[in-house]
Amino acid sequence: MITLYGFGTGFGLPEISPFVTKTEVQLKMAGLPYRKERAMPPASPKGQLPFIDDGGEAVADSTFIRAHIERRYGFDFDAGLSLQERAQAWAFERMIEHHVYWALVGARWVDPVNFAKGPAHFFDGAPEHNREKLREDAQFRVAENYLLSGLGRHAPDDDVDLAVRSLFALSVQLGDKAYLMGNKPCGVDATAFGALAGILTPFFESALRQRAEGFPNLTAYVDRMMDNYYPEFAWTPLRQAA
């Protein structure tokens, strides 16, 4: 059986990390049995989560895990899509992971109130004498990466404006369809769901979340995906939370 290593539940979500969420949803899409274990990034071959152990073979990074599933198990996450649609799905995935994701990071890690409420607790189990130093160092490293991503170079309102342009693109692509590429979920839906749920969770308050709530088809999409892939999770539908 495949073992999926992730962070686990938190922040009002069934999985803290949007990338672990992506892989977990894709495992469910493929109908593959798996068990899930908590881990921290240093345990991974690439120093990041998720990674999987599949019969003794360790595979790290959500995109490479997807490729592994497709190759080993013959599952096509984009079955039914034309070549052009596959290219579009890939482009949206890159936009989500290299733009929308960093907006989420800024809202969680750079905002001091949200950092104290959420990621700061990752270090609660550290020895008391260096706990605060570990928190400060981690926040500094993430803020530095946020700067390098490009979004962190802008004023707070400007970086949200840029992120909302990407959310607008996702909203237009989704339209009145059930899923991004049609009436059947495909690989990019796992990616989009992980990022959008991370932004829209009521656990964090942010300008980004407020702006994202202005796209009713995206909030309904997150509710739909949550119902489909985490029916056992106590999620208050966003339409009710609003």
TrEMBL record:
Record-level Gene Ontology MF annotations: transferase activity
Domain Thioredoxin-like fold, residue spans: 18-114
Cited InterPro entries: FAX/IsoI-like (IPR026928), Glutathione-S-Trfase_C_sf (IPR036282), Glutathione_S-Trfase (IPR040079), Metaxin_GST (IPR033468), Mito_Protein_Transport_Metaxin (IPR050931), Thioredoxin-like_fold (IPR012336), Thioredoxin-like_sf (IPR036249)
Organism domain of life: Bacteria
CDD domains per the UniProt record, alphabetical: GST_C_Metaxin (cd03193), GST_N_Metaxin_like (cd03080)
Pfam families attached to this UniProt entry: GST_C_6, GST_N_4
SUPFAM superfamilies, per the entry: GST C-terminal domain-like, Thioredoxin-like
Metaxin glutathione S-transferase domain span: 165-225
Keywords: Transferase
Name of the protein in its database record: Glutathione S-transferase
The species this protein was found in: Bradyrhizobium sacchari
